[in-house]
Every structure is written in structure tokens, then in C-alpha cells.
Design brief:
- The chain is mainly alpha-helical and about 60 residues long.
- The chain has a single domain, classed as Orthogonal Bundle (Helix Hairpins), CATH 1.10.287.
């Protein structure tokens, strides 16, 4: 996800996206521990996407 795309979304959309990413991250971690089709790059990308969403959410709430 690009930061420009995220800045165009509303606060509610960002919060729901953050929840979805948290669930996805939990599932990826679970699969990585069980060594089931674990792609470490997906885990890393999901973590970075979640951090981006939290950063943009903090920016929009400060305004």
C-alpha cells in the first residue's frame, strides 16, 4: 500500500484496514510457527503496511 492512497481514506476506513491487517499478521505468524507455507516476506510486508496505517491514522487525528 502506498502512503498517498492511505491519506485519501477516512478514519473509519483506516481503522478497519488496521484491524484486517492485524488479523492477517496473526495468521501469518501462526502459519510461520507451524511451518505451513510460511513466506517471511509476506510477514514483513504486512508489518510494514500496519505501521503505515498507524502512522497515517495518527497524522489525521492530530489535524
Amino acid at each position: 500500500m502506498d502512503a498517498k492512497e492511505l491519506r485519501q481514506k477516512s478514519v473509519i476506513e483506516l481503522k478497519t484496514l488496521a484491524q484486517e491487517l492485524k488479523v492477517k499478521l496473526r495468521d501469518l505468524r501462526f502459519n510461520a510457527t507451524l511451518k505451513q507455507n510460511a513466506k517471511i516476506s509476506d510477514l514483513r510486508n504486512s508489518r510494514k503496511d500496519l505501521a503505515r496505517v498507524h502512522m497515517i491514522l495518527a497524522e489525521t487525528l492530530q489535524k
